[in-house]
């Protein structure tokens, strides 16, 4: 059997229902992940531009726009297990430019910014509570990196009870192979992997 047949036979890949109360979480489009002067970054200019269009549309309709960033206190660096494996993340210190949301995203003062210490935007944060309070039923997940914090956020979003959409042209990674593999995996198990144009068309219909 082909790969597609194997997944289909196992019952994966069904479409995600779309509700009427969307929100977006933009994962880690901070300078540490978007400015190529930093070794942890990748070129995300096109992905930020596509994400910005979705954020602008959601704001105009009164739906939540939330950003996340990773930021550490210097005293945490030696204590956190993740930073022993991913040592490059240790440069993401509170108060530095690396943890600021990239202005190219079009972030606005009214947008919520969540500071996190791990991969998922849900872990150790009040994101689920914010979305629940807003009545969110469908969560759009964009950002960086596809194979890391985006995927972790998508998995936790499903486990928190949200239908999840992932616009592939709004997700950036350091390498193509993990990017594509993660999109495939998310499409099969956790989310609908779609495009920004499809999401904008859906938002226009609400």
Automatic annotation (TrEMBL):
It comes from the Bacteria. InterPro entries: Isochorismatase-like_dom (IPR000868), Isochorismatase-like_hydrls (IPR050272), Isochorismatase-like_sf (IPR036380). Keywords: Hydrolase. Signal peptide: none annotated. Residues 23-197 form the Isochorismatase-like domain. GO terms for molecular function: hydrolase activity. Pfam families: Isochorismatase. SUPFAM superfamilies: Isochorismatase-like hydrolases. Gene3D superfamilies: Isochorismatase-like. This is Carbamoylsarcosine amidase. It comes from Lampropedia cohaerens.
């Amino acid at each position: 059997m082909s790969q597609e047949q194997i997944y289909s036979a196992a019952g994966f890949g069904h479409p995600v229902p779309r509700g009427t109360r969307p929100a977006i979480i933009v994962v880690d489009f901070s300078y540490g992940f978007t400015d190529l002067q930093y070794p942890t970054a990748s070129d995300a200019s096109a992905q930020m531009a596509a994400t910005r269009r979705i954020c602008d549309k959601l704001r105009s309709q009164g739906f939540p726009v939330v950003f996340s960033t990773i930021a550490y206190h210097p005293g945490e660096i030696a204590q956190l297990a993740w930073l022993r494996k991913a040592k490059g993340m240790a440069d993401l210190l509170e108060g530095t430019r690396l943890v600021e949301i990239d202005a190219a995203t079009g972030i606005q003062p009214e947008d919520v910014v969540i500071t996190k210490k791990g991969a998922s935007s849900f872990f150790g944060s009040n994101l689920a509570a914010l979305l629940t309070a807003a009545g969110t039923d469908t969560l759009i997940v964009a950002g960086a990196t596809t194979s890391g914090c985006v995927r972790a956020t998508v998995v936790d979003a499903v486990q928190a009870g949200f239908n999840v959409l992932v616009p592939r042209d709004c997700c950036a990674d350091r390498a193509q192979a993990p990017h594509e593999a993660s999109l495939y995996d998310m499409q099969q198990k956790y989310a609908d992997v779609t495009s920004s144009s499809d999401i904008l068309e859906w938002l226009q219909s609400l």
